[in-house]
Automatic annotation (TrEMBL):
It comes from Cyathus bulleri. CDD domains: CuRO_1_Tv-LCC_like, CuRO_3_Tv-LCC_like. The gene is Lcc3. Pfam families: Cu-oxidase (PF00394), Cu-oxidase_2 (PF07731), Cu-oxidase_3 (PF07732). Keywords: Copper, Disulfide bond, Glycoprotein, Metal-binding, Oxidoreductase, Signal. SUPFAM superfamilies: Cupredoxins. This is Laccase.
């Protein structure tokens, strides 16, 4: 069966989610975009219709389904310059994909320039009626979604220098310093019930310290992967990460602050400040008022990533020791202060005009032919790849995301953090930490196609902090990936390319 939304119309609309009106990029007329939901095993068939008209922002578009593995459907991954040409204004394109074994919390966003910062972002949830984990939490309701987003008063192409967000939006609503007291988002609960809340960071830049006053959070999922339950008071959630946690509505009937404190922006508040970076958890029967202005409680127990362990098949691929992968890749991140570009192993990524997948399908014989040179890494088939990334490059901590695969986090951020091969968390976005940190991940190349690996701070991706892993050889990709003709015609250049060899 197909999820309820089969069309996403992308258009420009004036929005004032924090009381300040600006032109934005919206999906189906709303920000965040509508929830796309499906049951495990469903096929998604989504017609993305580009009705963008505002020249102060990008007018092409493409939509990435963040965390969906796109097994043998790399062409539907939605990355402009890697897996497709952007959809031109006035055109449309149907994405079709079936995530066979995936369930959990995902999202979708534009993957063209910094367009998602202008609004094109929304939640995507795959429900699992036979969730093997249900016995662990036994919740009464699993429909609550909490999205966190940074918001800017300027269109993203007009942002110069270091971007500084104006407001934190929780479920699409927020306040900014000096702005009007707009009504905050309300998350409703009934006393005595247990809930699965899904927390999604749709941030373009900041990470958030997330907590709900008076309530503990029992984490059961990270980035679409079930984890053994871990109970904390606070989560530092990085750009594009997701968590499910169980919340027990067992406190006194009343109103409680939901807080998401960003690490960057004009809205950083050290003391608690009248509903900025906040929403309200409201019990049924509580008055329709805001909670008292009290500071963030002290001594909150913060989630430590190394306490997260997969619920099933916990071991990392490869052998359980250093050097136990088939291929080891060390990345060296840099910043070129003259060009204002980030580099990976000396190269700043710039999207090629012919998408990498089209280069492959239309005849490139070898990775050395693929553009952009230096940013494309070809990986052998069905091997274990280990990637080590140092923290510390300017503008961090940087959250790195791999398309097409989840990975095991052998070493999490932190000075001298220990290696874990037996039960490391699996996820698709990892914080690489600050100077002195060295994060190591592993994954197996069992999904053919070019997959981007990049910093998910969108302004950093725009400034070159990305590479492409191509798994695996050209012949195998040609056998596995067959995009529809509509895909080829997204690229005006298509008919001019030499015929496939
Ligand atoms: Cu959430 Cu490259 O994407």
């Amino acid at each position: 069966s197909i999820g309820p939304i089969s069309s996403l119309v992308i258009s420009n609309q004036a929005l004032a989610p924090d009381g300040f009106s600006r032109s934005a990029v919206v999906a189906q007329g709303s920000f965040p975009g509508p929830l796309m939901k499906a049951a495990k095993g469903d096929t998604f068939r989504v017609n993305v219709v580009n009705k963008l008209t505002d020249d102060t922002m990008l007018r092409g578009t493409s939509v990435h389904w963040h965390g969906i593995l796109q097994q043998n459907s790399n062409w539907a991954d939605g990355v402009s310059g890697v897996t497709q040409c952007p959809i031109a204004p006035g055109n449309s394109f149907v994405y079709q994909f079936t995530p066979p074994n995936q369930a959990g919390t995902f999202w979708y966003h534009s993957h063209f320039g910094t367009q998602y910062c202008d609004g094109l972002r929304g939640p995507l949830v795959i429900y699992d009626p036979h969730d093997p984990q249900k016995y662990l939490y036994d919740v009464d309701d699993e429909t609550t979604i909490i999205t966190l987003a940074d918001w800017y008063h300027k269109p993203s192409p007009a942002i110069t220098g270091i971007p500084s967000n104006d407001a934190t939006l929780i479920n699409g609503i927020g306040r900014y310093p000096g702005g009007p007291k707009v009504n905050l988002a309300v998350v409703n609960v009934v006393h005595g019930k247990r809930y699965r809340f899904r927390l999604i960071s749709m941030s373009c830049d900041p990470n958030y310290m997330f907590s709900i006053d008076g309530h503990q959070l029992t984490i059961i999922e990270a980035d679409g992967e079930n984890v053994q339950p871990v109970t904390v008071d606070q989560i530092q959630i990085f750009t594009a990460q997701r968590y499910s946690f169980v919340l027990n509505a067992n406190q006194q009937i009343g109103n409680y602050w939901v807080r998401a404190l960003p690490n960057t922006g004009t809205n950083i508040t050290t003391s608690f400040d009248g509903g900025i970076n906040s929403a309200i958890l409201r019990y049924k029967g509580a008055p329709n008022i805001e909670p008292k202005l009290i500071p963030v409680p002290r001594n909150l127990k913060l989630l430590d990533e190394t306490d997260l362990h997969p619920l099933t098949n916990p071991a990392a691929p490869g052998k359980p020791f250093a050097g136990g992968a088939d291929v080891n890749i060390n990345l060296d991140l840099g910043f070129n202060a003259t060009a204002l570009e980030f580099t990976v192993n000396g190269t700043a990524y710039e999207p090629p005009s012919v998408p990498v997948l089209l280069q492959i399908l239309s005849g490139a014989q070898d990775a050395r032919d693929l553009l952009p040179r230096g940013a494309v890494f070809t990986l052998p088939r069905n091997k274990v790849i280990e990637v080590t990334i140092p923290g510390g490059v300017i503008g961090g901590p940087h959250p790195f995301h791999l398309h097409g695969n989840t990975f095991s986090v052998i070493r999490s951020a932190g000075i001298d953090s220990p290696a874990n091969y037996r039960s490391p968390v699996r996820r698709d976005v990892v914080n690489i930490g600050d100077a002195g940190s060295e994060v190591t991940i592993r994954f197996r190349t069992d999904n053919p196609g070019p997959w981007m690996f990049h910093c998910h701070i969108d302004f950093h991706l725009q400034a070159g902090l990305a590479i492409i892993f191509v798994a695996d050889d050209v012949k195998q990709i040609k056998q596995a990936i067959s995009p529809p003709d509509s895909w080829k015609h997204l690229c005006p250049i298509y008919d001019a390319l030499p015929p496939s060899a």
